[in-house]
Specification:
Distance between the termini: 22 Å
Helix content: over 70%
Mean pLDDT: 81
Largest sheet: none
Number of helices: 5
């Protein structure tokens, strides 16, 4: 058992991750972006923030205000560290002169994902 979960669960988890990586590498490239794409990009983070706020409300009711505040503090710290990581990637991409062409970016992303 690892982290309280059986070996079969971990093997299944890694099999699903491997299947998703294989499916992602076999799918054809993206088609042309629509003019609404920038608006839809914000739906994901907004949905996650609303889900986190809802979870914090549930934690406040179920476990108390202090525990909910601890969750919100942790969530805020993790979000700020995520933005910091995006800045680091931006600096690295500019430093290595990786262009905005679609043919270059999937290659870099796939190599990072497969090396994990």
């Amino acid at each position: 058992m690892i982290a309280g979960v059986s070996w079969a669960w971990w093997l299944g988890f890694h099999a699903v991750v491997a299947a998703v990586l294989v499916a992602d590498s076999l799918l054809p490239g993206r088609k042309q972006e629509s003019r609404h794409a920038p608006a839809f990009v914000w739906l994901g983070p907004a949905g996650l923030a609303l889900a986190a706020a809802g979870f914090a409300c549930w934690v406040a009711v179920a476990m108390g205000r202090q525990t909910a505040l601890e969750f919100v503090a942790g969530y805020t710290i993790e979000a700020s560290m995520s933005v910091d990581n995006l800045f680091v990637f931006l600096v690295l991409f500019q430093g290595f002169q990786i262009s905005r062409q679609r043919s270059t970016q999937p290659c870099c992303g796939e190599s990072g994902a497969h090396s994990c």
